[in-house]
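Dear Dr. L.,

I hope this message finds you well. Following up on our conversation about the binding site, I have prepared a predicted three-dimensional model of the protein together with fe (ii) ion. For your records, I am including the exact sequence and ligand specification that went into the calculation, followed by the structure tokens. Please feel free to forward this to your student if that is useful.
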Amino acid sequence: MSTATLSIAAPYIIRQDYEAYTEEQHAVWAELVARALPELEMHAAREYLEGFEIIGLKKDRLPNLSAISARLAPRTGWSSTPVSGFLPAPAFFEMLAARNFQTTTWLRSRESLEYTPEPDIFHDVFGHVPMHSHKVFADFLEHYGRVCASIADATILEKLGRLFWYTVEFGVIVERGEFKVYGSGLISSHGECMNVIEGGCEIHPFDLDEVLATKVKVDELHKLLFAVSSFDEVYEAMHEAERRALSGSL
Ligand SMILES: [Fe+2]
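The resulting structure of the complex is given below.
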């Protein structure tokens, strides 16, 4: 979707200077993908793996965001929009509501392949964007942005942030009786992904009350995550959360 309607987020939108990436950076991308894909082919949600093909991600070259957005546009209207860095919440919500996903363009260095404190293009594109090709997930994400953009109360926003965290960032789904990962923080982190797959983390069936009551911790591997049985469940949870937010019962 076009960025023309964005006002709060406008100052953060940049152009991705694709030609400026070095061969070393493309090689780092290739290594990150080569390390992650074999385990994801076994443990990622089917919808994520399909999305990877749909958006035309390349295994050996950094993603060109306009090419990816051109593949997404006819399917879900989402765009992977380059931004200068971390966005304040109102700008982030405004972008989601307009089906623009804030996407960083920098890539971690070879020295920090495992971990970056701030999201980079590997987390943002490899981790997030394939799911934006899934119609129900795409609708949910826009709805999330619209609802959050209309709320000023910090306590309510924190609770809604938990819904985002335990789905978009660290979501698990049950497929054919097995836990599969779809959250970007699981997809883009070997340690977090294996923590789920090897049973280091309790997985409860997704329950909105429990999700909203579970504080986000960022300084340790997760001890508790939540598994949906389909993405319809995420979509419906967002509608229920909106209903509660509007009635003051969230
Ligand atoms: Fe993320």
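In brief: The radius of gyration is 17 Å.

With kind regards,
A. P.
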